[in-house]
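Quarterly update from the structural biology core.
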Amino acid sequence: MKKNMTYRIEEGNITIKDFLLSNNISSKAISTLKKQVDGILVNGKVQFTNYKLQPNDILSINLDENNDYENIIATKMDLNILYEDDDIVIVNKSADITVHPSKKYFTNSLVNGLTYYYQNKNMDVKLHCITRLDKETSGCVLFAKNRIAANCLSNMVKQKEISKTYLSLASGKVSKQHFLISAPISRISKGNILRCVDFQTGKEALTECFLLGYYPSNDISLLKCLLHTGRTHQIRVHLQYINHPIVSDSLYNKSCNLLLRQGLHCYNIRFIHPISHQLIDVTSQLPADLKQVLI
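Predicted structure, tokenized:
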């Protein structure tokens, strides 16, 4: 797939390299562009990255990127695509598949399904996963369809410019309407998948929670959780820490088996599109298997 981008320079006296870096194009992508015959053009002519741009120059970058279809088994799936354009795709993941292929789930992942989807459309797409969810978590997953978009989005993740909101089914009656959980998280031990709150060696973690309702029949509080950091298992660990673990969480709430999977859903993803600069605001409603216990 070939990705082309054009910029009209407003203020000059900046090198191509510095301009691209300031527009979230990574050093690795710039190195790739330098190796291509027409990777970097200024006013239609090939230029080196130390060239100083002038006002009204037209900078064009052209990136060729091969897909990896040969390494992925295409699997036909009933995908629920929430949003798609030339650069990104947002998929509503169900709770029975992983995001990436693995030894255990070699053909049953979103990447397998998207590979089939694009092959069937004769589209040459190189997928880059930007956001991830645990297998048993449903909801919005963001992919970039080319390296340039992937570089920009990855930088946005680091700068906390991509907002993700979750709906969590928490055990017990939560008393506060709005609260913050600020508690550092670390692995329980090396090689262990389990995480815990650890104020000595843990990394900063902040989760903002809003109480949406309490359902006494199953003693469940429905929370809207906004991640201000992106630690592994962050919401799961934080809700366990305040003694309201997620319903049916096999790692952090083993005594609860109300659901066949954990009660966690990525409800919304929101960010400024790195290429079009439009607001992307995509929502996935709470799925039926979670709704059924909110009675």
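The chain is about 15% helix and 30% strand.
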